[in-house]
Design a protein that fits this description.
About 10% of the residues lie in helices and about 35% in strands. By secondary structure, it is mainly β. Helix 2 (about 195-210) runs antiparallel to helix 3 (about 215-230).
Length: about 325
């Protein structure tokens, strides 16, 4: 899996004028930018699944009916049982250089310890989205879902990776963590590594790399490694990435399902316990990490803009009341 890099520091430009859910922060790095656009109506119920005891950093938003909303073309909301987090955004990376990281992202990770991340099962994330170009014209990585931001950042120490999301990784990215699934492409994906497993894998790396040189050994060895890391992945047909689709992740306490336009495309009998943070991103990075010992990371450049367009993103609690 190619996660977004942790986007904080001097290179980050925050755009508090964007209309986002209270818990979210917008981030643009390098050639990345975020645009507010008018795409369909807004659905919102601010307190539908508030987490008690969690302080949400304020992002100033224009009020419904204010001149700011008229300029953005935001319509008066229709009430439903969901919490609206994002609507009418374009995450854009425009002509990045190959030597520099570029990222456009919204998340709710900033200023929180991992144990204070907002989301635990059972819940459902729904995102209506499209890319600005078909798969063969996209570069870098992109996606939306939940993760624990496992890299070193601020006051947080490294942690075993945990994520469930829709993930796009384009060549030269190559991270074939699931047996029989390519290391790049458009995927439904999950990883849920725990500390004891990470410690055991770290000590076993030399033996895994050695065994991976022999196909017969590798075919028996890697599925066990995959199960221990709780890796679940499935390729998704990418022929209409540049058309609007309704994506959903239903995250239960014992299983996860991914669906597109109401059709389940992948299910897992495993599920992270959480808490995890929400992330929606588009960047220009690539990562190579193969079981046979390949390890490489960098950035890709291109001309023109690539965009991930979000009509809306909502989270609904599935807890029985």
């Amino acid at each position: 899996m190619n996660p977004p890099l942790s986007a904080e520091g001097d290179a980050v430009e925050s755009m508090a004028s964007l209309d986002l859910g209270d818990s979210l922060r917008p981030v643009a790095v390098g050639a990345g930018r975020i645009e507010q656009v008018t795409i369909g109506p807004v659905t919102i119920e601010p307190d539908a699944i508030e987490r008690p005891g969690i302080e949400r950093p304020g992002i100033e938003r224009p009020r419904i009916g204010s001149p700011g909303n008229e300029r953005l073309g935001i319509e008066r909301p229709k009430i439903d049982r969901s919490r609206s987090l994002v609507h009418g955004l374009r995450l854009v990376v425009d002509g990045p250089e190959a030597a520099r990281y570029a990222d456009a992202q919204v998340d709710d990770l900033a200023g929180r310890r991992r144990q204070d991340f907002l989301w635990r099962p059972p819940l459902a994330l729904s995102v209506r989205a499209r890319f600005s170009r078909p798969l063969d014209e996209l570069h870098g990585t992109a996606g939306f879902g939940f993760w624990n931001d496992p890299w070193v950042i601020g006051r947080r120490l490294p942690a075993p990776p945990q994520a469930l999301w829709f993930l796009l990784a384009t060549p030269p990215s190559d991270m074939p963590l699931a047996a029989g699934v390519p290391g790049h492409g458009w995927k439904a994906a999950m990883i849920d590594v725990r500390w004891p497993v990470l410690a055991a894998l770290a000590s076993a790396v030399p033996f895994i790399v050695l065994g991976a040189r022999f196909d017969s050994v590798f075919r028996r060895l890697w599925p066990r490694v995959q199960r221990s890391m709780r890796v679940e992945e499935s390729m998704i047909e990418p022929t209409t990435l540049d058309e609007w689709h309704d994506y959903k992740i239903e995250w239960g306490e014992e299983r996860v399902s991914w669906s597109i336009d109401g059709q389940v495309v992948f299910e897992s009998e495993k599920a992270p316990r959480g808490p995890l943070g929400l992330v929606i991103w588009l960047d220009n990075q690539f990562m190579v990490a193969t079981p046979r010992g390949g390890l490489r990371h960098g950035f890709v450049g291109w001309s023109g803009e690539r965009a991930l367009e979000i009509e809306r993103a909502t989270i609904v609690s599935l807890a029985t009341r």
